Structure formats: C-alpha cells, structure tokens
Amino acid sequence: MTTTSGGAGGATAPSAQELPTAVDDEVLEQERRRWTPAKIAIWAGIAVLGGLGWVMIALVRGETVNAIWFVFAAVATYLIAYRFYSTYIERKLLEPDDRRATPAEHSENGQDYLPTDRRVLYGHHFAAIAGAGPLVGPVLAAQMGYLPGTIWIIVGVVLAGAVQDYLVLFFSMRRGGRSLGQMARDELGTVGGAAAVIATLAIMIILIAVLALVVVQALGESPWGVFSVAMTIPIALFMGFYLRYLRPGKVGEVSAIGVALLLLAIVAGGWISESGLAEAFTLSRTTLAWCIVIYGVVAAVLPVWMLLAPRDYLSTFMKIGTIVLLAVAVVVVRPEVATPAISEFAGRSDGPVVPGPLFPFLFVTIACGALSGFHALISSGTTPKLVEKERQTRFIGYGGMLMESFVAIMALVAAISIDRGIYFAMNAPTALTGGTVETAAAFVNSLGLTGVNVAPDQLAGAATMVGEQSIVSRTGGAPTLALGLSQILSQFLGGAALASFWYHFAIMFEALFILTAVDAGTRVARFMLQDAVGTFVPRFRDTSWRTGAWIGTVVMVGGWGGILIMGVTDPLGGINTLFPLFGIANQLLAAVALAVCLAIVARRGTVRYLWIVLVPLVAVAVITVTASLYKIFSPVPGVGYWAQHFAYRDAIAAGRTSMGAARNPAQMEAVVRNTFIQGSLSIVFLVLTLIVIAAATIAAVRSIRAGGLPGHEDEPVPSARYAPSGLIPTPAEKELEKRWLATAGAPARGGGGH
C-alpha cells in the first residue's frame, strides 16, 4: 500500500493499492494560489456586491430598507470567509492529512463508524445541528432592530460559531470520535473534566426543553398544525421501513415520496381544520407537552433506521430547500423592511419580548444563529465517526455552520418584513396583551413606537388570512416566522389564496427542524449519561444494553420534560422567561467546547495561532458571564430570576392573592417555584463553566511553558481510499478521483454516496 501523497497527474496505476490516497499538498496549494483573470473578476464581484449590501444595511438611512441587501451581504461574507478564513485555519492550525485514515475508515463497523459521502454527510450534519435556535432567536431579537442582530449573526458565525464546529469536529475525529465530555476529561483533568460532563448534561436538559416548548407554542390550539406535524411520524416510519425492507438504498426515491406525503399532510390539515375532526386535533399546550414527552421517550429508544434516519432525510430536504426558496423569493419579491436599524428597546431593559439590555441579551437570544454549544455535541458525537477524509471537516464543520447562520438571517428577514404592530402583538406574553385582539391592539399602541398604530381588525384579519383562530401572544418566535414566510412566499407563488398553505408549511418546516433536534438531542444526552454513569457502573457504557438505554432515556426525558411542563404552565409566559436561560446555557456550552479546544491547541504547540480559539472564547465568556450575572443579581423583576422570586414570595407572605401576570395564589406559587429553579440553574451553569474555563487556562499555560506536550490523538493509520475534500473537487482532485474510479470503482459508502 502506498501511503505517501502524490500529484494528480501521470499514468493510471495498475492497482488501487498503488494509487495515492491524497492529492499532494503542494499541488493543492498551487491551485489555491493560481489567480486567473476570471477568478479575480468573480471574487471582486462577490466582494463588491457584499460591500454594497453592508453599506445599504448599515449606513443608508431611509424610511425602509430592501430585504434583498441582507441576502447579498450574508452570502458574500460567507463565501469570502469560507474561501479565505477557513482555509487559513486549515493550513495554519489543523493541518489535515488525507493520507491518514479517519475513524470511519479504520474502525468501520457498518453502524456507528461508516465512511459517508461528504455531500450526504453535510446534509446529515446540518439536519442534526439545525434546531429551533436559528429560527427563533433572530425573531425574538428583532425587537432591538435589524442591524445589531444582522452583524452578530454574520460576523459571529465567521469568527466564532463556524470555528467552534470545525475545531471540535476535527479534534474529535483525530481522537476516534470521542465525545466532548471524554475530550474534556483527557485535556482538563479530573476536576475540569467532571465539571464539563455535569455542565453538558445539565445544559442539555434546558436546551431540549426549550426546543420542545417552541413546538408546543406553535401548535397550541391549532388543529391544522397539530394534524400536519403528527403525520410526519407515520411518514417517517414508512420511509424507514421502505428503505430497510422494500427498496434498500433508494434514498432519492424515498425522499421524493416523503416530500410529496408531507405536502399532502399540509393540505389535509386544512381539510381537517374545517371538518368535524377539528376539535379532536385542537389540543391545549399542556396536552401537547405530554405528547412530546412520550414521543421523546419512544423516539430515543427506537432503532435509528426506523425514525431518526428517515426524519433526517425529510428535514434535510425541507430545511435547505425552504431556506433557498425563501432566499430566491426575497430576491424576486424584494420586500421592504420598515423595522428600524436600532429600535427603541435597544437601550432599555423593559422590552416586551426580550427583557434586558442589548448587551448581553441580543447575543444570548440569537444564540444558535451565530454560535451554538449544542453543535459541539453533534460535532463530537455522530459526525466524526462518519467523515471519510480529514480535509472534508472544513466543508462539513465550517460550511455546515455557515448554512445555519444563513437560516438565521432568513428568519430575521421574515420577522422584520411583517408589520411591527403585529410583531409585538404576537410575541408579547398574554399577561401583557390580554389575549384578545382588542386588548392586544391597545397594548401595542401604548408602547409609543414610531409609526405603529395597529387595529383589532388588522390582527383578526392576519389570523384569518393564515387559517388560524388567533395570532395574539403566539410567543416562541415560530408563529411569527411562519407569518413572515407566508407573506413573502405567497407573493412569490400563489398569491393570497395560498397564504394559509404557506403558513402551515412553515409551521411544519419549523417543527421538523425542532423535532429532529429533540430526537437527536435526547439520544445524545442518553449516551452522555450512560458514559458518565459507566464510570461507576461499567455495564452502562454498553449502549446496546436495552435496560440501560431505557433508564438513561427516562432520566433525561424526565429532566427536560419537567422543565417543559414548567414552561407551558408558567404564568409569566414560559418562552419569554426560559429562552434567555436557553440562550445563556447554549452559549456557556460553547464556552466549554472552546475551552477544551484551547487546551488541545496549546498542547499541540501551535501557540502562534492560539488567537483563533482565544478570540471567540473570550467573547462568549464575557457575554455569557455578564448575562448570567444579570439573571442572578439584577434587581429588576423582569430581568432577574431572583428579583422575581423574592417579589412574588414577599407578596404571598403579605397575603396578596394576585400579582402581575399571576391571577390567583396557585399561579403566584408557580412563579415562586419556577424562578427558584431557573435562578438556581443559572448559578449552577455559571459556576461549572467557570471551573472548566479555569481548568482549560491552567492546562494551556502548562502546555505553552513546556513548548507543547504529548497529545491524546489516536496513532495514525494509513488510508486506503480517496475522496475529494469539498463540495466541488479541484482539477487535481477530479483527476485523481478519475484514476480511482477507473481502477477500483466507486468506493463503498454510507448514505447512498457514490
């Protein structure tokens, strides 16, 4: 077997064993540095278009701004960042070697470890990381205006979010696909590793609970939405059996059938909502919460092929397809954005949607759209066990997160394109709006927003247009995003007659996003819990042990299910009080992941490029620590959990039977209980994260002083296969791929790749 790299040229080798398994590094470098006039013109055009987009968004001030500029600014920035900054990280910091076999190759077992076509794996990875965050966070943050959110979503992903995903994926791959907790134990020692494992498990409970809460808020009292989303379960099960028994390997075929069935489910939901069956599918939020809890238990213990894998196929097509469709619609329709660049609430702490000042709450509210700790669990969980070649980690890790950021930008555009009065009526909790169109209109008009004067008939008409009974206080961001999508897409295709179809299409699109994350998150959390308990009871580490799987699943679902029920029954509006904690927890988990990366990079001795990790780590640490301190110590009840807790507790002690949003003693006691739990979790998350950061700093300093230390990477194994590194192979990669195909044929891969 030849293990040295070679160029792409030359005669075809007589056998696969004699072919090089990688294009020579110098050849790739020459291709990157070869600037033809056409190449220069293309990149100059991208830079000019992106620069013009940023000028129009950030500097030009008028009554409105065209949404098309958001698309141009985002896409141009992503392309430039991927081509130049991610390449810089690859060359200077990571130095991937395609002559080295990945865990998918040297540990292939047909299940967890399986070389997977890079394009298929990109879809799998994106489906797993893309949950509610990029959809909901930007919608809620739109309260503060479009400019701060746009800057953080785009700049934050380039320098922080995509960097974290890329580094964690690469380092985990080099360690046989070890989890974030396992890497933390290796790099940070006993105390830091234990803190990281506990923090990760605790944070996962909050993350999954809020993801599920978003679904509940979107589907509550909506028979159309409940029916359509419920139908995705039998559709996914059918696809699973179809792929396994009826037509194995026919991924494209079953995906086409699945998408067609999904569209039929949306149309049928409209029929159901107008029939005698509507009442059966009109479920309260509490009932929906229990349904999702039961679903979470079942989905996490079923074989992956039966539900999770087909749902991945479905959601990948729906997610990427819908976002691309929306981007095209924005370019064609060119909706005007009347929301100000920086709103009246940017400098205040009494926002009706997100209480608290712009810094730090804008950043923790946007969360996944720019940086997500949840991604570190996927990047160190399933994906590194499937990567076919080391260089592909840039396309999958960095590139996958850029796509999620684009989802966030599109969500922001959808939110800021609807009427501002309707936006606040939808996203303010019932305690403020009163729950009726009359009281909601009066509340919104009392905010004193420039140019906003909403009428009850306007709110009622918006609900009727999309086939809903009411849009008042449909908090959680998902209904607002669905309304924005509906307005843009109905102008693009179908007109007002299809507005209700597009609204419920968007609801299903969002639910698929979120339920995929609930499925995968619960399963990952169960694996993490089994691994942690396995330290003391080794049998638990056997993930095929059914008893252990059930115990782990019930414990984790019980944790997030309890928080979900608490959020659904919260008198203060669960999503409004829990989403800041979700954002903080998610960003604290990102700080944990970046801290582990810091220790690894320092141990490798690449101190000169440590700033690549240090910059996002310091930024997210400052943001999240500040946000945590606000939630713990702020004397403003609308911001601080403990201030709220003591205000309601003192009111009960004084004999009051109602206060603010709590209309009776039972609701007042619920606020006291909920704020105690939320405040306590804020303290626990902060302390654990600071321990991890301190342990990582100590480990990094020790490594720097020693000039680098022996790492925990697996011993290299020579690769015996070849595959291109990116979506589009370079000329040298195409040539070498042709030689491999001519000699050895198409390699065996997972996911139907060829």
How would you briefly describe this protein structure?
A two-stranded antiparallel sheet has the order 1-2.
Provide a descriptive summary of the structure in words.
The protein has 754 residues and is mainly α. The radius of gyration is 25 Å and the shape is globular. It is built from 27 helices and 2 strands. It has a two-stranded antiparallel ribbon. α8 runs antiparallel to α26, α9 packs antiparallel against α10 and α24 runs antiparallel to α26. The longest helix has 41 residues.
Looking at this protein, list some descriptive labels.
754 residues, mainly alpha, two-stranded antiparallel ribbon, disordered N terminus, single chain, 27 helices, 68% helix
Write the layout of secondary structure elements.
Elements: H1 25-33, H2 37-58, E1 65-66, H3 68-94, H4 103-106, H5 118-129, H6 133-141, H7 146-174, H8 180-219, H9 223-246, H10 251-273, H11 285-301, H12 308-333, E2 336-337, H13 358-366, H14 373-379, H15 392-416, H16 420-427, H17 430-433, H18 437-446, H19 456-465, H20 478-492, H21 499-534, H22 546-568, H23 574-604, H24 611-633, H25 641-653, H26 665-705, H27 731-744
Antiparallel strand pairs: 1-2
